[in-house]
Inverse folding.
């Protein structure tokens, strides 16, 4: 057995444990009986510790080192070199993080999430603030341990978006703001838009489900390697590319929740389903820093796929020109008197709101900028934890022209900070930017792509994404992937052009 | 931390892994997409190896030894002493089994099961025979490694029914035969009985499900710590006492499959749900030889609970006197013209058949004796693998008066031998015997038990079983439990009295 083969065998075992963790997580979120939570927590903690012990062990260090020697001179872009490199980078970072830091953060995280839930329920930020201070202290220690040259946020971004920095984010955000804010101003100048009347009607769940799955399968989702379930907070999760599961939720009077929710998770799912078969159970389908089995290059690149299929494909006029008559068959009484134009506008209605998860394409990035700027400010001392509600509300006014009536609908709305993970918010917006760039490149490279999309034939787009992004799993960084796939580094141009063109047409002003 | 606490911490980690294995198994049997099987197999193999490595490690040996020293002089019946004893016995057995034997058997098992399925489908025993020979060789090596003083079968029984021997089984079986065969002869003297006409009707699945769950909850099943799903081969499985899941299957024209199937699994579930809370994540809820998280003393004692609730309670006239009107509400058109007497007789119809899993209470044990005698004969050289079809058919004729038209409905019908596990069949019949003994003891000890059962109040019986059997999990052997609970060693008297009384009344001849 070569040194690389030994490395792979060890990586496969760790991936098996990470996949088992995912199965237990999926079960806990979908169908676990209420009183199963406590012992399930122990099971997850034990498996996570086992995986981490095996990854950070001296034995694994030796396997990585010997494999590196053996691969000296090999193609630096080959999967074996990349697999060993991914393990090396995570291994070295783990060497720098004190063991008690991870243990302390994990121990606090469960408690902090409970307190956060109570604080949100009681609308009492002061209850949560002491926990947020401790979580922030852990994040600061983590940043110091990992190391950075410019901004402490850079060290935290490593876990979610390799290569991204606070500096780069500020540039990207400035570009987005310059287009989004005037666009939003134009759209909202006419005052608040009424909620579409047909959304007062009831849309039976079974038909919502049938249509959502039909669209998911049309995009390329493979029910032989996956399944669709109900979850209050929809998600995608995989246990190797052979079993990639997606979820959605159903609202009787708001079928968009189920339809676009499932398109979003389908995008995540297509990424996992598309990993090269030879990367199954490998270091390149294992996120060692997160101790999570996943086959995507970064949070942002993953989100690019969900946004691609939900927004650029699923909310497009081209999609509904073909699929709206089909939806009308499922809901013949509810939609008989609703025109395609009315329906398409309802699916793309822009309306500033307080809540991120309900935001439309134009306002979503503004919610993200707000959070990212606050996170950066917490890390570099611009804000204290006690100043957060005021900072939040000021930015809501600045970006969205709204003031939250209370902290529950403001600074307390997201669970992220209670979990101790700072730095993942910007990946949602990075995903949007990348989705625009990928779609533009696919249009350039795949002849007849727009004609295919107009016929709702998705194989050409899907195959281009598999060849250029999905099959590589975690072999390349997002920057490398973008340059390989599009010839260009990350830039906002195509995404902003998409946004402007689409919403100028919808809101000609 | 005391030595015992250190021992417990290690045992808790192993139990966490075993519970995770159970979650992965449950998922694989209930809902895994078809192409997930291969990588799920790797995940299960890795977790099983991890659990086994941790259990058989020198470190665990040291923990056991130090805990034994520390507990010297402690009450030999206390849970701590029993926990360490259970670990010691399994640890010593593992020391005697060569590692390649387990690995070889595991590797062959998957292939042998595939070949068995094909052989059954093609009705081709010769296809399966070479694999059965190899599996038998493994079983013989396992018996020699574990050790025995009288019959090699004794060594295999250790894994399923501690304390049981070939000699004891032969005595018990002779007693069963002496009553069962004449009883069956009386019942069948009048010739074959027609299938009840109402079983030609359709019983919608949703109502079957609702009624089956209602009965399960009446018996004491706790839906806050469990859930009910559909499985083609129903089973019960637990991930600690906090999450105990049961399954059943539905046949449109045969509601007995779902109703009695779920009662059976409910009995298994009540055993797991009833374990003492302090035994959660302990050595006494871990089957180390089977590398399986389970809180029952043995396969036989577990089966005693499923038979208790399915047959002694669920198929009793007392149950249906109360619940048949309820069933008629669920199936008002199907059962309006069916009397309680007709229904009760249909639920207890005795009919010799070729297939074990379809057998009634009177003939079931005969199917088990046949298999057990063949297993013993294979182990001690009475039969060769090539002689098996003839031996099977001869015993079918002797016990049930039937000759299988082919091997698919004969010697090839069960998967057990293909898996490599010899010695579990007799535990089904031991469960029947124990169920009779436990019910008789409960009747003696719980005043007014029959009145309660006549009102379908199950708390008195359930609580007696919790106090005497369920809460102890694996702390005592089946023999110890029976003596503690009933004052008597295992004997067939109460079970045979039950069988005779019930079926003499049903078939007065």
């Amino acid at each position: 057995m070569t040194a690389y083969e030994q490395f792979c065998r060890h990586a496969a075992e760790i991936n098996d444990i990470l996949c088992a963790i995912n199965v237990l997580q999926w079960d806990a979120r979908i169908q676990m009986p209420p009183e199963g939570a406590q012992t399930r927590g122990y099971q997850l903690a034990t498996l996570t510790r086992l995986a981490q012990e095996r990854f950070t062990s001296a034995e694994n260090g030796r396997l990585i080192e010997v494999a590196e020697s053996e691969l000296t001179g090999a193609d630096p872009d080959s999967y074996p070199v990349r697999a060993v490199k991914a393990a090396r980078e995570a291994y070295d970072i783990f060497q720098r993080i004190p063991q008690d830091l991870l243990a302390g953060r994990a121990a606090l995280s469960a408690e902090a999430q409970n307190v956060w839930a109570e604080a949100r329920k009681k609308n009492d930020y002061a209850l949560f603030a002491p926990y947020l201070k401790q979580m922030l202290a852990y994040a600061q220690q983590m940043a110091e341990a990992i190391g950075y040259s410019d901004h402490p946020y850079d060290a935290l971004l490593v876990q979610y978006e390799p290569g991204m920095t606070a500096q780069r984010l500020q540039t990207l955000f400035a570009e987005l703001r310059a287009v989004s804010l005037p666009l939003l101003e134009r759209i909202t100048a006419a005052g608040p838009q009424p909620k579409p009347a047909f959304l007062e009607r009831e849309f039976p769940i079974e038909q919502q489900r049938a249509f959502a799955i039909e669209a998911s399968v049309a995009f390329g989702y493979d029910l032989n390697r996956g399944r669709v379930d109900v979850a209050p907070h929809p998600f995608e999760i995989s246990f190797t590319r052979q079993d990639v599961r997606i979820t959605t939720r159903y609202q009787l009077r708001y079928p968009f929740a189920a339809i676009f929710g499932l398109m979003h998770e389908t995008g995540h799912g297509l990424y996992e389903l598309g990993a090269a078969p030879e990367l199954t159970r490998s270091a390149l389908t294992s996120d060692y820093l997160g101790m999570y089995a996943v086959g995507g290059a970064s949070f942002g690149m993953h989100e690019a796929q969900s946004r691609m299929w939900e927004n650029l494909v699923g909310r497009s006029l081209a999609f509904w020109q073909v699929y709206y008559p089909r939806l009308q068959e499922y809901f013949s009484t509810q939609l008989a008197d609703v025109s395609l134009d009315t329906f398409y506008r309802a699916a793309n209605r822009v309306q500033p709101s307080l809540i991120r998860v309900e935001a439309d394409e134009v306002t979503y990035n503004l919610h993200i900028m707000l959070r990212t700027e606050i996170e950066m400010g917490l890390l570099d001392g611009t804000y204290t934890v006690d100043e957060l509600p005021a900072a939040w509300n000021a930015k809501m006014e600045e970006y969205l022209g709204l003031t939250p009536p209370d902290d529950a609908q403001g600074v307390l709305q997201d669970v992220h900070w209670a979990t101790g993970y700072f730095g993942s918010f910007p990946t949602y917006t990075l995903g949007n930017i990348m989705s625009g760039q990928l779609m533009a490149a696919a249009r350039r490279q795949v002849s007849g792509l727009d004609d295919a999309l107009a016929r709702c034939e998705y194989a050409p787009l899907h195959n281009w994404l598999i060849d250029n992004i999905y099959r590589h799993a975690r072999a390349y960084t997002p920057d490398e992937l973008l340059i390989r796939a599009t010839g260009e580094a990350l830039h906002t141009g195509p995404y902003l052009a998409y946004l402007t063109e689409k919403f100028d047409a919808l809101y000609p002003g």
Observations:
- Chain B is about 65% helix and 5% strand.
